[in-house]
Design a protein that fits this description.
The protein has 74 residues and is mainly alpha-helical. The chain has helices at residues 15-22, 34-73.
Length: 74
């Protein structure tokens, strides 16, 4: 009869120990992609700010005129 005696937590009577003993051992840590994710996030934010600035410049006179008309009639 083969027994897995490699982990003493398995025989402690603890449910947590039993569950942890059933899991696979940890493998090597995967390489981090944090720099790539941060770069993509910065590029998206720059693009959003640029598009917003372009829209604000194009629509600025229209919005100003709308609020001027709104305050003049009220």
């Amino acid at each position: 009869m083969t027994s897995r005696l490699t982990n003493p937590l398995e025989h402690s009577g603890s449910l947590t120990g039993h569950i942890l003993a059933q899991g696979a051992s940890d493998g090597p840590t995967p390489p981090s992609r944090t720099a790539k994710v941060v770069l993509i996030m910065v590029l998206v934010m720059v693009l959003l700010v640029a598009v917003g600035a372009i829209i604000a410049v194009i629509a600025g006179d229209t919005v100003t005129q709308f609020f001027d008309d709104l305050t003049a009639s009220g």
